[in-house]
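Q: How do we represent a protein-ligand complex in a form that can be generated token by token?
A: Start from the inputs.
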Amino acid sequence: MAASLQLNFKPFKPQFTHSISAPNKFSTRIRCSAATPSKSYTVTLLPGDGIGPEVISVARNALQLIASIEGIEFKFKEMPMGGAALDLTGVPLPEETLSAAKDSDAVLLGAIGGYKWDNNEKHLKPETGLLQLREGLKVFANLRPATVLSQLVDASTLKREVAEGVDLMVVRELTGGIYFGKPRGFGTNENGQEIGFNTEVYATYEVVLLTKVYLTTGCEPLVFLTVNLLSQIDRIARVAFETARKRRGKLCSVDKANVLEASMLWRKRVMEIASEYPDVELSHMYVDNAAMQLVRNPKQFDTIVTNNIFGDILSDEASMITGSIGMLPSASLGESGPGLFEPIHGSAPDIAGQDKANPLATLLSAAMLLKYGLGEEKAAQRIEAAVLNTLDRGYRTGDIYSAGLKLVGCKEMGEEVLKSIDSKVTAIA
Ligand code: IPM
Ligand code: MG
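Then emit the structure tokens for the protein with 3-isopropylmalic acid bound:
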């Protein structure tokens, strides 16, 4: 009997540890170094709302240039999603968008949401479309790295000595917990008062699939059983332990096990799974304390694993340590199928269409797409190196600007990153 638990997961190790010291002289732009692409990938682009289309357009150009250098081909399919889809089709995630996403090799999302749809009923909110997409793609593991780049230490709201050197990863459970738990809804209580309610629930259920394969040998049939174990907590815990193992070997599980039953079970399972990873140092922290420790001494953290809602909150908090939420990428991965890659920022309707957005989080999400979604490590490295090089050359969008540097808009930042990609063609060869 074979117990198989496929974990098609390639843990993230940020590439920011190398620093690019001197800006390179630009070589002429090399657009076509490989005549016939050897590999072709379909990438679904979901620009979405607000600043989404602006940042996706920058990432698309970068991917196109990388493809011409690396001898790969991207077939982009742009599909409506979020508010844009609501206006066009009446739903936030049209079936065509979900099936295009499922049929592709990877999905890159800009951002969704905006004032216009804020008061819509729940099933007609752009955010509901995003949750449907995550559920539809079964991407349960959301990796949100927060790395303070040496170039941006002064953009952090924390003191230099607190922020400098922070390099942590939030592993957020993405398709369970209170976001999806039932019962949920609106109703009235015994006093006739209106109520809204949700359920924080995590299961250690095991779905056991028995596949019987009969091989006729002439005598007795041979029976093979394949057992697939699926546990909501176990699988995210394993992803987190694997991630920590590839980083600095420290995992902090964040919960609220002093109050919530769902957290008590979470902690019990994480402790159980820990026995498979004796090389990883596991600690537990209540979420209120974790929120405090993140601003008190963020360097104590290496990898954090937590549930859907705590991960949502803590990753926004962690992003501010790095200087701007406009810098942080994310990867959402399942056991198989295409991953979903998106900046962790929202659609920023206040600056939409004004060419003010920071496209770096989306570019870094495109790098994660190349690395984890497609296994194109070198191409990913090109984007990461180009982002660092552009920062080294002093270019900043408004959110990360400080005096004496070059303030640019979204488009120009994108152009400068393209120049850096070009200039580094031979350096990364
Ligand atoms: C995020 C966002 C989403 C979430 C919203 C837009 C549904 O805040 O990706 O962090 O809550 O997961
Ligand atoms: Mg969030």
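Residues 52-70 form the longest helix (19 residues). The CA atoms of residues 152 and 262 lie 38 Å apart.
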